[in-house]
Model the fold of this input.
Amino acid sequence: MKDDGKKKASKNKKHEDLEKNREDGQEQFLTTNQGVRINDNQNSLKAGDRGASLLEDFILREKITHFDHERIPERIVHARGSGAHGYFQVYESMEKYTKAGFLQDPSKKTPVFTRFSTVAGFKGSTDLARDVRGFSVKFYTEEGNYDLVGNNIPVFFIQDAIKFPDLIHAVKPEPHNEIPQAASAHDTFWDFISLMPESTHMIMWAMSDRAIPRSLRMMEGFGVHTFRFVNKEGKGTFVKFHWKPLLGTHGVAWDEAQKISGNDPDFHRRDLWEAIENGQFPEWELGVQLIPEEDEHKFDFDLLDATKLVPEEMVPVKKIGKMVLDRNPDNFFAETEQVAFHPGHIVPGIDFTNDPLLQGRLFSYTDTQLKRLGGPNFHEIPINRPIAPLHNNQRDGHMRQQINKGQTSYQPNSLGNGCPFQAKIAEGGFDSYPEKVDAKKVRERSESFKDHFSQASLFYNSQTAVEQQHIINALSFELGKVDAVEVRERMLGLLNEVNKDLAKEVASNLGMPVPKKKTQLNHGVPADFDPERYEPTKSNPSLDKDPALSMMHNGFGNIATRKVAFLCADGVDDNSVNEMKKALDKEGAMVKILGPNSTEVKTADGKSIKVDEAFRTSASVVFDAFYVPAGDKANMALKKIPKAIHFLNEGYKHCKPIATAQENGLIEETYFWNKLDKKNLAEDGVIVGKDKSSEFIKAIGQHRFWKREEKDSIPA
Ligand code: HDE
Done:
């Protein structure tokens, strides 16, 4: 194969395993599913060329029958997702805490398949919905598959699994008219949330820019629940999992998200795909917060409560390894759609805790695969099968692939030499952590789960002013879409418990007062709903702020994979294009040449530059930054193209860096140019003049110039 200079995917055991199932029709005859070569794939068999089709046409019947059965049920949640292959490598042995094999040897690469998803939308919905993102990783370890099925937000809406169907019914499109798609901005969602104060912390996260990520490659991931590491001596340590993206954590503007949804609903999917195809492999570090068992009750919240996080200020995140995604799937359905994650897929050295949300999940995930993938043999689907050897007495069922040899399928047996036999713990046999249980069977929730607001306040207070404003805007938008006034009132009551200014600002945007009375939790709810039992408390939290909760605390400076649009037309200056492109390429940014047509532009020196996209087929919202190269003729031509002017106007509105090699040109046509303080242009992310690549790179590294939001926005 020709070396194109791009990084290549690593070879690993899972790829070798999948190779057995890969099929390629290149240079092959077209056949039926029975392998019979097909001579005519254009005409069905008929009684005469104008006659009825014949039932005996096995080629027609097979083809149409297979087609009729192509669809499987989409996931009830997380239906829309994108996946990729890669590997994980630990930095140093974690044997002190866990005996998990894949966390011992820094020289070992463990294959992974990772799927990112939105939660609420259907399979064909937009990527840029305001929503939580799923972050699921399947580690194909030598001791069996380990699935870390997390989200990009470290807490959850509810504390107990029994509320999950209610939550999802509330957020999904409303049942009478199936509106709206992939959006929480509707009555039923906020009705439920306003009656469910335990959701308040999660709502703060879900209304932050985390819920509109710039890229799947720029999101954190979290295991959410507290899990347990168990070492060789059987000692347990509580563990919280984090994924930290090397590109930092970044969001887009809400107006931008909505427009991306129209211009490119596959924006995130495409972005992930293109980065991997270009050899710019996304990377995340795996971090752990380790909490000795003795410290279980040392916090002012309960480790078993999934609406709480362990602040990094209290327990730092130790980075223990790195995941690299370096290969796109060959087939979306076979891999991304059929992959079956399960938080209950664990390996020796990792175990559960009693988190009641996690406990419910342990049931749900197998159940859902049975329905979705059609039977109990979904573990045999290539993407799901482990690279570890698999032997047991489970037999038969729909679509069984394995051909189990021998007379026995039970244990104990003597006729089959007792095989397959149980593994001793020293031989890698799984033993559950022997947690002591001595309790009454009750349908109750612990008192230690009752503080629903302290961490919501902690989150809000830890945000920068810009981030707080975005949360206010998001809540004002979402609640503004709610018709039922009592729902809005209840929400304002809850927000008031988080932060008085927050409630005031949202109330003012809605044009209503913050209710004086404490939230009425029983409003509109059947009589058997006892609000007293759910009445939240607020403890005296030991922490006011945690900088790690703000997205703005790291990940700036790196411009790798940032998409930069060069706005070009005939007469563009060669050097001005080439020098800037060279500088950006060196930093790993992706330059796209935009022009008046889809083919090429002629430079001032008469050379041609290939156009990646015409203005008419593209949109400013899919770029991170804009550059107008020098060239009088080109700039004059661009001034006459409304879409080119709109690129800069909208880019400015969305706070993106803009560079222009000359003042007298396209930029003069924008709505903002005359309003700018020309002495402090760079501070506002507007770079003017020749040879300004380093200033432009610095500006792109800052991601956005949110300060512009304080001024005005374009009427677009
Ligand atoms: Fe899930 N969840 N979930 N969930 N979840 C599913 O399983 C469920 C929860 C998460 O890319 C389903 O295979 C219950 C928390 C991700 O294929 C289903 C409860 C977290 C994915 C299911 C939760 C998640 C799912 C639907 C409350 C973050 C996508 C399809 C007790 C830690 C996995 C499927 C993929 C998918 C049930 C709560 C993350 C129905 C009952 C908390 C990332 O089984």
Remarks:
- Residues 75-78, 81, 115, 117, 134, 136, 149-151, 156, 161, 164, 224, 306, 341, 357, 360-361, 364-365, 368-369 surround HDE (CB under 6 Å).
- The two ends are 48 Å apart (CA to CA).
